[in-house]
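Predict the 3D structure for this chain.
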Amino acid sequence: MDSGSIENYDVVVIGAGVSGMYALHHLREMGLSVRVYDGASDIGGTWWYNRYPGARVDGPGSPFYSYTFSEELVQEWDWAETQSEQSAVLDYLEHVADRFDLRRDIQFETWVEDARYDEEAQRWTVKTSTGDRASAKFLICAVGALSTANKPDIPGIHDFAGECYHTGLWPHEPVSFEGKRVAVIGTGSSGIQSIPEIAREAAHVTVLQRTPQYAFPAKNRPITPEEMADARTNWDAHREKMHANFGGFPCDNQERSAFEDTPEQREALYEALWQRGGFQFFLNLYSDIAISEEANQTLADFVRAKIREIVHDPATAEKLLPDYFVITKRPILEDGYFEAYNRDNVSLVDLREDPIERFTSTSVITQTGEHPIDMLVLATGFDAISGSMLRLNPKGRGGMSLKEKWEDRFHNYLGLTIGGFPNLFMIHGPGSPGVFYNMPLGAERQMDWIGRCLSHLHDQELGSIEATTENEEAWGAEVSTLANITLFPRTDSWWTGANIPGKPRYFSVYLGGAMYYHRITEVKDKNFEGFLFEPAHRPEGAEIP
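Done. Predicted structure below.
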């Protein structure tokens, strides 16, 4: 594209990960012209960037962490393991891109540096890092809930002269740990997955733990031919269960309280789930674990006892014991994490007792002493849920930036739209189930709603749609009301923004589960009640069937 020219499309999509890929496919099926921009060199989003050792699906597991829109995809793709490794997920996404010829409408190695709404033209204009400009009636932000890496600002960290890697920005070429002294900061999902793998090769691993975690056995295993056959034969029934389930999984919702069982029965259930492992642990728990302090305590005590049982050194085990409500930080599946502390080449530094003072070119210095290191691994997570939207920082009516709009709270309606930003839509944004829902399925369901919205605008000859302030406030209150029924807001986590200095601190995920999709369907069925519409200023673009 000539740097002085501007290309016109019906829709610009930002992001070519799981959500953006489906958005592109769906919009093309509607007959729309689409351009997708992504800063990576190929498709995959999170699964393109997160190549750290041990990276695996630690959610619902295969074959249900996948697209559901195509029966052919289900029939032709074989999953090898219950908790697929990163490369297997990326292979699947590359197959999807090939199968539906997606890459021809994606421009890679291109960051959108500016996005502005033209009120007179009722169109978005984007400018990219390559100097290209594009105009579209609609802007869809599939920018990822976990894509903006959080890099800690610790004194001297930039003076460290050794190798330094963030788990969310891992190199594509192999990284060798052999014979090296490695420090890992962070024990969230990527830290817990990578530490056992690094320890198998490194001369020494120093784990710099900010907060101990409840982690549960992944029990990854090969998928049997019978399981794949069942998934294919009964796909419609599985998909129906996924739509009805709180988290989008092919399971029945649990309604039994922890106190309907005796202590012995509860212990037996927890032990059976622990031995079985996988994400099924969380799906088969009592219904009040996340609501009742007393019920939560029964599971927390069980997991803490397991940690004491696994970790041989009592002093180390004590440092690994969490002291907050279980599952109120993101539940993590582990494979040998606690056992890693029984190795001679792994040591744990509890930063609450022994904080980091500074880095030097060759070491990290904590309050009690110096730890020489050759490599630093930052398993410090992301500015989650809202961070990627704020990094984009689109400009809406009157030139208002999203950073201004979201200064005190992530104002939105339905987790899909933002007042003052007409014709802009988010997938997995704040105010939606997002990270609490099966991500590929959630992307499909949110994008299907967006597609119906675009068709409505075309059919009614409307030029723009945007949320009202009143509906944003009501939606924000609904999100908070649901969250406050639970224990989640009472624990500092990236769900509440506690990992990012200065970030608004509240629980921004919609915890209604499948109810969310009933709510947005109600709005659609009432002709998108609660939105402001403008008539089209002039005839627009391609036909929308």
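The mean pLDDT is 96.
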